[in-house]
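Bit of a strange request maybe. I'm writing a small parser for structure token strings and I need a real example to test against, not something I typed by hand. Could someone generate the tokens for this chain?
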Amino acid sequence: MKTPNFRQAIKQTSLFILTIMVLNVIWKLIFNFHYIVELKNELLDNDHKGLIILVFLCTALFIWIMATLIFGSLYYFFKKFTYKNNSADE
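Reply from user aminoacidic:
Good idea to test on real output. This should exercise your parser:
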């Protein structure tokens, strides 16, 4: 068993979180299409389209980074704890 690496834990967690976010969007596109159409219509009716898109992208990026840091740290400490227990058992 390899020694836990914080960088690897963050990388794996970020890909996992990104996958969950993308699957959530796909789920909403398939099963809640009326919600997406309503959101699109509100965006097209608004005068500040660029600002709305920028705020949306920054919010999604912020959520992704914060979730990655929180869950990546928890994953790293879990892997480190289980590595110490496994190496102590041997």
